[in-house]
UniProtKB/TrEMBL annotation:
Entry's Gene Ontology cellular component terms: 90S preribosome; nucleus
Gene: Cmss1
Pfam family, one: CMS1
InterPro entries: Cms1, P-loop_NTPase
Name of the protein in its database record: CMS1 protein
């Protein structure tokens, strides 16, 4: 009987360590990069944005207020089915772009607004829209290495057709009356793209909040009025 006791004590310790190791592994699986790595890419659809807004505002808004934040399907452009390049997607949703570009004469505004998660991603999208944009003027609307006063001055002095940038800087420009959205016809969210950590723009808390703030501040109203169409690329 006594000879068995050390054996029993010896076996109990590794079992506890093994259980701890299993629990640690389970915790690691909760990281968003691990979850997304195992999930198949799925194209974003209008319902995804609607659900996101409902979840964000659901607890703090009345039924009437939530109703005012709803967007009908007519507010949306066709969503990217993950087969498009950025240029081919823009060509599909804006078949009359040449005419729109030619008729746009207003300063402090853009016809198309593209929202993404970072300055680097903005530059990538600007390069990848070459086949679509033609000779139109594109303005970088992000904070990295560019002061907001510089962007306001450029918008006041020139005519730009497309603005590409981050939601925080775009929101700041609108708030400071540097950018007017009355001439904007299209707003494209870089919805499906994933960064090195496999996060989409709406998986990054700060970018998600700034995007929702921008939508609530003016875009949802313009969409409901019919002057702006939303696209999920």
């Amino acid at each position: 009987m006594c000879a068995l006791q050390p054996t029993e004590c010896f076996l109990s310790q590794p079992e506890e360590k093994q259980e701890t190791t299993v629990k640690a592994k389970r915790r690691k699986k909760k990281k968003i990069s691990d979850i997304l790595e195992k999930s198949a890419p799925k194209a974003g659809v209008p319902a995804d944005l609607q659900n996101l807004l409902s979840q964000h505002f659901g607890e703090n808004r009345s039924v009437i207020e939530l109703e005012e934040l709803k967007l009908s399907d007519t507010c949306f452009l066709p969503a990217n089915d993950l087969t498009h390049s950025f240029s081919s997607y823009l060509k599909e949703i804006c078949p009359k772009w040449a005419k729109l570009r030619k008729n746009h004469k207003e300063k402090k505004s853009v016809v198309m607004l593209v929202i993404c998660s970072s300055a680097l991603r903005s530059l990538e999208l600007i390069k990848s829209m070459t086949a679509f944009k033609g000779d139109c003027k594109v303005l970088k609307l992000f904070a990295k290495h560019i002061k907001i006063k510089e962007q306001i001055n450029m918008l006041e002095k020139g005519v730009f057709h497309i603005g590409v940038g981050t939601p925080g800087r775009v929101k700041a420009l609108v708030e400071q009356d540097g950018l007017c959205l009355n001439s904007t016809k299209y707003m494209i969210l870089d919805w499906n793209w994933r960064d090195q950590k496999l996060r989409r723009m709406m998986d990054i808390p700060e970018i998600k909040k700034e995007t929702i703030d921008l939508l609530e501040m003016c875009i949802i109203k313009l969409c409901r009025e019919g002057s702006v169409k939303l696209g999920l690329f």
